Amino acid sequence: MELWGLLSDIIFLLSACLIGGGVMSRMGQSPLVGYLVAGMLVGGPGGFGIVGSYREIEAIAELGVALLLFSLGLEFSVHRLKSLGRKPLFGGLVQVSVTMLLGAGAAVMLGLAVEPAIAFGMMIALSSTAVVLRILMERSEIEMPHGRNSLGVLLIQDVAVVPLAVLMTVLGGEGSLSDIALDIGTLMLMALGLAGTLYVLTKIAVFTLGTLTLHRNRELTIIFAATIGLGAAWAAHRVGISPALGAFIAGMQLGSSAFATQIRADVSTLRVLLLTLFFGAAGMVADPLWILSHVHWVAGAAIALTVGKFVIIAAIFLVFRQSFRVAIATGLALAQVGEFAFVLGAIGRTSGIVSEDVYALVVSITIVSFTISAFLVPMAPTIADRLARMLGIEPGDQSETPRLAKPTDALVIGFGPTGQLAALPLIGSGLNVTVLDLNHEGVRRATDFGFVGQVGDATSVEVLEHAQVGEVKLVVITIPHYRSAIYIVELVRSMNVAATIFVRSRYQIHTESLSDAGGIVCGDEEQVGGAIRQNVEDWLVQHPSGNSTDRDEVLVDEPA
Q: Do 347 and 165 contact (CB within 8 A), yes or no?
């Protein structure tokens, strides 16, 4: 299809998603439901047929899932991934196997032959990475116990896509057991090679990012982020594994770098756009007329699968001796059929093992389960808690509580000579201090002070959210640029009404507007460092933490 025809289809689909998502948000519901319905109406087989470029849009939209996993990988360094433990990862392996076998058994009892029944079991075994992780990240629940379980299971499911796809081909009579072993072994070696290659490339990329001081040009950091995220997805696709998994590995390698926060913010807009296209394209697969004419089958199967997967997953984590609340919440979060059902179903149709009616049923169930999950996943902890109370079950032990990073007490934005001078009183104060600076050298100095340093643009909402600005007690803004400073003050104040905000003003003329925005203005250019330092010391006197050390041991760069 020509470019302009594809572009018009994308515009129509995005417009429909905008309307559908807006209507659902207005009704207090998840916009995901609006995106699915919009895609079904404008491009589905039984819809209005306005959008016809399904294959092209689907290929583009798949990158949205890859960027979602890339962003998640930035949150999880290798060390943090190890901290997930064995239970979520092993639980994912058990869940896929048990769900596939029970699903196949149910299909045989309903009249399918053994091979098509196994294919059906494979299609329903996987949950939705796009739906679950999107909601968990939006709600900041990825570090909660059920969020960590969900992440581990979904990662294993992404890995399982490849052997399941090979098995689907063999069921269609296009291969043998020896072919399966050879293909899976080859893919495992290629996956290990990809992981090693991505590790080396990301280390080189991070070194280059710091050495070439790309912070001086924001365009270059955006290009860097897109190149790494999309490049990893492409490389994974080329070796035959899930593009989303490749993107996650690349993000995870970058997760321990100081640039992770800014990279996450740089890809966020593109990620949201492509994920919206993904859900719109998912809706285009379903035929609303077929669903209406087979509503009893679709509704019954969707409810049965939701309940069945919930019971299986919850039971697995109960057997693994996790608390009742965590097991129930995990089961509710993963109780849907995932987007890989489309991929496996398409392979099954090509191989002749999946009939048109079975494929249409699975697609319809998947769309319905997406809709159910849009309501169920956000409510999972609440439902689990209420169910536990109804049954009189006591809370689990302390090991089941979320293992969150230390909360940020003070946030320093800008760490040049003025910022370093202003931050001296915070050394040894007992407060957890985070420093945001676009200059890698400033971040390095922050770590010398004993603070957490992050390369990030404080004019970005996502960067501030990651720095936990909503929870901080003190914000110190020392950047010299007036327009950026006033925007940051307004942004911080909108996200945290209680925090004390000290802000630098280079010129007297800007003092009033910075004060009106919600900041406490500290002196002119000649006196600003000492003025902010004095204000910070006064604030610490009013908010003692009980800890102190010698603050004069840290050397501060001399102001220019």
A: yes
Contacts of 15 (CB under 8 A, 6+ apart): none
Which two tokens mark 387? 């169910």
- Alpha-carbon gap, residue 275 to 60, rounded angstroms: 10
Q: Pick from 131, 542, 186, 123: which is nearest to 374 by CA? A: 131
Region of 49 on the Ramachandran plot (φ > 0 left; ψ -120 to 50 alpha; else beta)? left
In 435-527, alpha helices (H): 440-448, 461-466, 482-495, 511-516
Residues 443, 435: contact at Cβ < 8 Å?
Answer: yes
Backbone angles phi, psi at 352, to 5 degrees: 85, 10
Of 301, 269, 332, 249, give the one whose Cα is nearest residue 103. 301
Is the distance from CB of 103 to CB of 309 less than 8 angstroms? no
Q: Identify the DSSP state of 275.
A: H
- Tell me the mean pLDDT in the region 242-262: 80
Least confident of 177-186, 187-196, 288-297, 394-403: 394-403
Are 348 and 119 a contacting pair, CB within 8 Å? yes
Q: How far, in whole angstroms, is CA 270 from its chain's centroid?
A: 13
Q: For residue 426, how many other CB atoms are within 10 A of its CB?
A: 26
Reported as a single tens digit per residue, the pLDDT across 446-463 is 998 999 988 888 888 888
Under CATH, which architecture does the 410-553 domain have? 3-Layer(aba) Sandwich (3.40)
CATH topology of domain 64-274+292-390: Na+/H+ antiporter like fold (1.20.1530)
Dist CA 468 CA 470 (whole Å): 5
Can you give the residue ranges of every domain in the chain?
Answer: 64-274+292-390, 410-553
Number of continuous H segments (helices) and E segments (strands) in the chain: 23, 6
pTM listed for this prediction: 0.73
Q: What are 415's two structure tokens?
A: 């760490």
| Residue whose pair of structure tokens reads 């609340």 in the numeric block | 325
Q: Which residue has the tokens 């209680």?
A: 498
Cα-flanking dihedrals φ and ψ of residue 328, to 5°?
-65, -45
